[in-house]
Design brief:
The structure is a homodimer.
Chain A lengths: L10 H12 L5 H8 L3 H13 L3 E8 L8 E9 L5 H4 L8 E7 L5 E7 L2 H12 L2 E13 L8 H13 L2
Antiparallel strand pairs in A: 2-4, 2-5, 3-4
Helix pairs in contact in A: 2-3
The first copy, chain A, binds a DNA duplex through helix 3.
DNA sequence: GGTGAAATTGAGATATG
DNA sequence: CATATCTCAATTTCACC
């Protein structure tokens, strides 16, 4: 897997990622201006980021509230003795489920769920309840959702250090 | 707020949203083919979706693993007597935090956190630990992350019913 | 909401420094 | 990797049905 990542991301790559995470429709011209590189160079870097799987695609962001699904909740599932039930019945039966994660710990599954109202959510919980014990947390408000990925602290220290050596 | 949403989304709108959530860079030509409408009509609908805030933007999707942050965890914070501490110190100090939600219940905050390794995560938890009691859930694997938003079950029933009346 | 045409814009390639 | 230029293609946008 690491053979695929020819090299770690440098600061220009991260700048490109930051820009494209904010606006996926930037032209190579505009991008090149913002990262202070030529258009062909940026295009080449973006191509590499796509091919190496760092950039997995480009998606429109939809506001769940404006789209009629203002209710957000986290649901922890405690699956009966090892049989995680969302493995049997696919998530396709539950369009309300936005995310599914397997956890360490007693409650083995974490779901992020969106629905149109408390009434809908109640129905969802009832349907899902057949799968095992659960614990629900209803979200009151959201400060950040899907914040753009940034270089980790360690990476920034490294590139900063490189920056000091260069000039 | 509802005055802004001139009307609810119909099935063509949802089809457009589905396509653009899968590929934000579709041209109006290609989009018009997929939703069986003319290009100017699609462009007009997209413009309305953008103006009404249903579409909030277009973003590149970045694979956190390939970008060097394979570790994902949920952290529940129990803030000391009503003072939610992420209100005082901004989330900018914690670039690892991908999401912040206020919850009902004892643990008043749910964080989604990405970091480079367990070592980094340990450091993050120590830094955050000053803010209050917490409960961490480390993610072992992820089946779905940020699944595209779909019309709610109720909406689909309604539009299906409309579909029956039309022919 | 559909059609068609004109004008703008951007992508891709190539050659060179 | 930067610059320059060229060509080709594609999309946007407008006016009109």
């Amino acid at each position: 897997m690491n053979a695929f990542r020819s090299a770690a991301l440098d600061d220009v790559d991260w700048k490109i990622l930051a820009e494209l995470q904010r606006d996926a429709r930037l032209s190579y011209n505009e991008l090149s201006r913002r990262v202070h590189l030529s258009a062909p160079s940026v295009a080449e870097r973006v191509r590499r980021l796509e091919e190496s799987g760092v950039i997995t695609g480009y998606a429109a962001r939809v506001d769940p509230e404006r789209a009629g699904q203002p209710l957000l909740a986290f649901v922890q599932l405690r699956c009966a003795r090892g049989q995680c039930l969302l493995r049997t019945s696919g998530a396709e039966d539950y369009p309300e489920i936005a995310e599914i994660h397997k956890l360490s710990g007693e409650y083995c599954t974490m779901l992020k769920v969106r629905s149109a109202s408390l009434t809908h959510f109640e129905g969802f919980v009832e349907r899902l309840g057949e799968h095992g014990e659960m614990r629900t947390h209803i979200v009151l408000s959201t400060q950040y959702d899907d914040r753009p990925l940034e270089p980790s602290v360690l990476e920034r220290e490294v590139t900063d250090a490189e920056g000091w050596q260069r000039p």
